[in-house]
Predict the structure.
Amino acid sequence: MIENEDDFSELLLDINKMAKYPIYGFYCNKRVYPDNYKNNPFSGENPFDYDNRLVKSLFDKISLTLPHAMILNDIHIPVVHYGIASFENKTTVLIGPFCHNVLDQTDTIEYAKMHRIPTPNNFHIARTQIASVVAALRVISKVCCDRRVEISLPSDILQSSAPLSEIQALNYKLYISENDRQRMPLAEEQVLFDFIRHGKVEELRTYLVNGMNYEEGIMSYNEKKQAEYSAVIGISFFSRVAMESGINISEAHDLTDIYLQRASTITEIKEYYKLLFEAALRYAQEVKNANDSLYMLNHVEKCKNYIGRNITHSISLSKIAEHVGLSSTYLSKLFSKEENMTIQDYILDEKIHAACNMLKYSDQPISAISEYLGFCTQSYFGKKFKIKTKMTPIEYRHKYQSN
């Protein structure tokens, strides 16, 4: 159970590490998460920051019966949704805005204007599956409330082309656990996710066999629901970790559907945990396969891939050479021969290209962009930017944003 603001913020931070959509938390009607939203140069803007009418309307709809959780449509643009959950311990969570289908630019700008976003042309709405938000609301409910919480869905969502099998399975399977059940410690959870994230199949197998015990003997009916709940939530999180680690997103969703369908046919408690462990190993294997394919790329492509994934950090030649498995001298010669430029020039070009996009499409301060892209000082960033573009960052922003 949530005892204070810090517990509540920590819970939402854990959820947000996996999520692909904004999450806001209110404790005693005061926003306590995210407290650093404005300072994140990659977060964008959110109507919850600017449209008090929207926040009030969502609070009004959820406050009639507590505890309660639901998915709601935006009253102006119905294909835009929000997730909301509120509990008797004075905690409320807002998720969104999000879409489960692509929203065209015209509707996006219209939405932003209706909800008082200062820069509507730069506004973007997160795209995610309804089932992912439902899963997040279930996890939040598990910690914040000691009773079962049903999640209400708009009828148009149930009749749409959304992945109904996942929504129905989550609505049926994900229950609130008994109030004396403890969450997996964060450190242990991260160990498990890291094995999947890096495709360490055998290490994961050893960890599951030696560190986890699913032979728990005779259990009550509530224990069976907890096992079912753990399996479905675990499979969903494993899938998300694997997708973030590079496996094909469509194939990952298909694999998740298959495991959820299998979970719906299980009758014995220990089979849920066997399925969960099988899914963890399968996702880790898929990540390993993706990594093996990556390593088959030639050395220059591997070098460029590493630079692209670390563009926001300070990148050294020695680190790249270590990643590729060649000496720094040989890699430099090979790269220059194939690309007609040095590795250092390529890194700078990529960073300047990223800076140009941020200057065009965001209002982030130049100092924040410089720091975000790993430049040692703002003046050094400005100097290199002008060499590459023949303009200062301020001149570049003014030229393209005014157009």
Notes: The first strand starts at residue 23 and ends at 27. Residues 5-162 form one domain. The chain is about 60% helix and 10% strand. Confidence is low (pLDDT under 50) at residues 37-43, 161-183, 213-221.
